[in-house]
TrEMBL record:
GO terms for molecular function: transmembrane transporter activity. InterPro entries: MFS, MFS_dom, MFS_trans_sf, Sugar_transporter_CS. GO terms for cellular component: plasma membrane. It comes from Microbacterium telephonicum. It is a multi-pass membrane protein. Residues 28-442 form the Major facilitator superfamily (MFS) profile domain. It is found in: Cell membrane. CDD domains: MFS_ShiA_like. This is Sugar phosphate permease. Keywords: Cell membrane, Membrane, Transmembrane, Transmembrane helix, Transport. The keyword Membrane applies. SUPFAM superfamilies: MFS general substrate transporter (SSF103473).
Length: 464
């Protein structure tokens, strides 16, 4: 039931009736960009290290080939715990606010990342080393599962109706910024401490730097006001008692379809963010054999491209709709998938860089509008749970074991063609899921419009 007209909040106003100023919105955008950049820097330096050194340092007794597979499996294991983080964060976020969750996840991620940089290796403490490594990666996964939904809702729920795609792109660009920062710092350390020095201590420095980044991110996020949608819910005492139960009772199919949308992007993106290309292109026994510093430099450049096209796609989705922007993105991503390995396998660092940059065009177009798309799919009272859990499930179906699958395919077949077809299949899956959803660009997000928000965005269904 809608609230009385006197209690409705006009577009551009906070629930207390004050105008949401440009300064307020700039502060929210800045805080979400910085916070998600720090979170994903922490997440990606682990993936990069998994591709470059963890196999040798923590899993060497398993043998060279299997040690690397085990190393990539630890990247994927964390994804299995992201739904737990999403469930926990969704419950807390829908009951106690988006801002609280953002603070908690930032601290948890930073502590886990810093401790990885201090871990003894297998040679020092035996089996305890990989067990501790996996435990810390699980904590990273729990944090990542809760972080994204909070950052997205803070950005989108503060945004003007006509700029949700652009505002929602701010936490999205934190991912390529995190990749850029992680690859840049790893690449710098590969230059400062090449060869055995990188293996001995150089890889640890990027993890230890997380302490500084977390302090900066925490300070900035503390200065941001709570989401106006949650503030209005709290003032009316209309928070849902069991938001996760309500989500799956009414919107289970929507969660699955939304998860498939993200899975199509995430599987392809994790060729670099999951460390696979870094390992494949630098393997001294492989067909490419490029230097670590060169490959990390190429990944860093591709992160810049990914950032630019993510931002463009968010802006464009405000003009042509989320669904249309996504469809364009899936076509571009499919083209990038088929070009990637022929360029990488040429053995040229220029071609590898070109392949990664071309791939990021489609990745940006299928990632930039996601924050706005997800926010417009779910009712206000269970929105945090909806976007967080859909995202976490999509990450498991998509990127969780994409590097492991790619490594296993190449070891079994001796060719990257099977990897190309796997990534193409995931892209098509994302396209089909997108086609099943109606475009709800501009739908009111506040609690006054729950009845409208409850109508299913899935084609062919009258109610979720």
């Amino acid at each position: 039931m809608s609230a009385p007209a006197s209690r409705r909040v006009p577009e551009g106003f906070t629930p207390t009736g004050t105008i949401a100023t440009h300064a307020d919105r700039r502060r929210v955008v800045f805080a979400t960009v910085v916070g998600t950049t720090v979170e994903w820097y922490d997440f990606f330096i682990y993936a990069s290290a998994a591709g470059l050194v963890f196999g040798q340092l923590f899993f060497a007794p398993a043998g060279e080939g299997f040690a690397q597979i085990l190393s990539f499996i630890t990247v994927g294991i964390s994804f299995l715990f992201r739904p737990f983080g999403a469930f926990l964060a969704g419950h807390l976020g829908d009951k106690y606010g988006r801002r609280l969750v953002l603070m908690l996840t930032l601290v948890l991620m930073g502590v886990a990342t810093t401790l990885v940089g201090l871990l003894p290796t297998y040679a020092a403490i035996g089996m305890a080393a990989p067990i501790l490594l996996i435990t810390l990666r699980i904590l990273q996964g729990i944090s990542a599962g809760g972080e994204w939904g909070g950052a997205v809702l803070m950005a989108v729920e503060h945004a003007p109706k006509t700029k949700r795609g652009l505002f929602g792109a701010s936490p999205q660009i934190g991912v390529p910024l995190g990749l850029l920062l992680a690859s840049g710092v790893m690449g710098l350390m590969a230059l400062i401490a090449p060869g055995d020095a990188f293996l001995a201590w150089g890889w640890r420095v990027p993890f230890l730097l997380s302490v500084v980044l977390i302090l900066v991110g925490y300070y900035i996020r503390r200065r941001v006001e709570e989401s106006p949608v949650f503030t209005e819910l709290a003032e009316r005492k209309e928070e849902t008692r069991m938001p996760i139960v309500q989500l799956f009772r009414k919107h289970a199919l929507l969660v699955v379809i939304a998860a498939f949308v993200f899975a199509g992007n995430n599987a392809v993106g994790y060729m670099t963010t999951g460390g696979y290309i870094q390992r494949y292109a630098t393997d001294p026994n492989g067909p490419v054999g490029l230097t670590t510093a060169d490959v990390l430099g190429a990944v860093t450049l591709s992160a810049v491209s990914w950032l630019v096209f993510t931002w463009i796609a968010g802006w464009l989705s405000d003009r042509i709709g989320r669904r249309t922007t996504y469809i364009i993105g899936w076509v571009l991503q499919l083209a990038g998938v088929f070009l990637l390995f022929p360029l990488v396998n040429s053995g040229s660092i220029v071609n590898l860089t070109l392949g990664l940059v071309v791939l990021t065009v489609g990745l940006g177009f299928t990632y930039g509008p996601q924050a706005a798309l997800y926010s417009e799919l779910f009712p206000a009272s269970i929105r945090f749970s909806g976007v967080s859990i859909s995202y976490a499930i999509g990450a498991i179906l998509g990127g969780a074991f994409a590097p492991t699958i790619a490594q296993a395919i190449v070891q079994a077949t001796g060719s990257t063609m099977g990897v190309t077809w796997y990534l193409a299949g995931m892209t098509v899956l994302g396209l089909v899921a997108t086609l099943l959803l109606k475009d709800r660009s501009g739908i009111p997000l506040g609690p006054d419009h729950e009845a409208e928000q409850e109508k299913s965005p899935v084609y062919g269904l009258a109610k979720a």
